[in-house]
Amino acid sequence: MADPELFVDAAGDGPAVLLGHGLGGSARNWRPQLRALRPAFRAVAWDTRGHARSQAPAEEAAYTPERLAADLGRVLDTQAEGVPAVVGGLSLGAAVALRFALASPDRVRALVLAAHPGTRSGGGFAAVAEEFAAAIDAEGLEAAGERFVWGARSGLDRQAAKLVRMGFLEHPPHAIAALLRQFVRPLEPVEALAPELGRLALPTLVIVGGNDAASLGPSHALAELLPQAELVIVPDAGHVVNLARPEAFNEALLAFLERTVR
């Protein structure tokens, strides 16, 4: 199975910082952070396979955690000049970054885990992933997304719901359904990774919105289990914490990088 071409947005000089977006997002979601990072860092974001400007393989088996982690490795190969980099992401992107770090800790300088989607109990979005994917197959992405992501029960305000909808509808429906089945549905609870996390001696910023009920538990668990983790809770922010409160997110991110990288 050939690797898909990935759209990469990269600029700046200095230590490389790689940031992966969440399900239904794109590299555009990191624009406020890329602008803040580029004066001092090589700031890198990319569209995950099956999203936006990256290719979307037809085979469902192309969307496993292993393949997404390998894509992160490919981006690192081209952007970090062969030296360890800061690796991170939001939600799906955080899960990919953590998986990559557990498999290849020698290639990672520090971790940034924003709104990690893993749960203490195995519930959360993973519990409805198959139902969401089946709805995409039967009804189309817009109707399924209205029910599961940006509709009245989502808790999003009108502007946020509009932006989330626009983002999701940019992507091929088969890719979103495949990621739900291959990545999100089998996502392990954070506590299942406890032995591996306890051995991961990397500086880690765990950052989450104070209103993000789904990710607060996993974020606390990560901060407890990772030996060199620090937890930042951003008040008045939901799941997409970097866009809800970009100034606060950037302040925490730059302070962490100054302490651990520069």
Describe the 3D structure.
- The chain has 262 residues and is α/β, with parallel strands linked by helices.
- The chain has a single domain (8-124, 187-260), classed as Alpha/Beta hydrolase fold, catalytic domain (Rossmann fold).
- The chain is 44% helix and 15% strand.
- A seven-stranded mixed β-sheet has the order 1-3-2-4-5-6-7, with helices on both faces.
- The termini are far apart.
Count of distinct structural domains: 1
- Give the termini distance in whole angstroms: 39 Å
CATH superfamily: Alpha/Beta hydrolase fold, catalytic domain
CATH architecture, by name, is 3-Layer(aba) Sandwich
Strand content: 5-15%
**DSSP helical segment count:** 11
- Morphology: globular
Please state the structural category. Answer: alpha/beta
Main sheet: strands, sense, barrel? 7 strands, mixed
Spatial arrangement of strands, main beta sheet: 1-3-2-4-5-6-7
The CATH class assignment is Alpha Beta
H/E topology pattern: EEHEHEHEHHHHHEHEHH
Helix content: 40-55%
List unreliable stretches of 5+ residues.
Answer: none
Q: Within the CATH hierarchy, at the fold level, what is the topology?
A: Rossmann fold
Specify Rg, calculated over alpha carbons. Answer: 17 Å
Average pLDDT value? 94
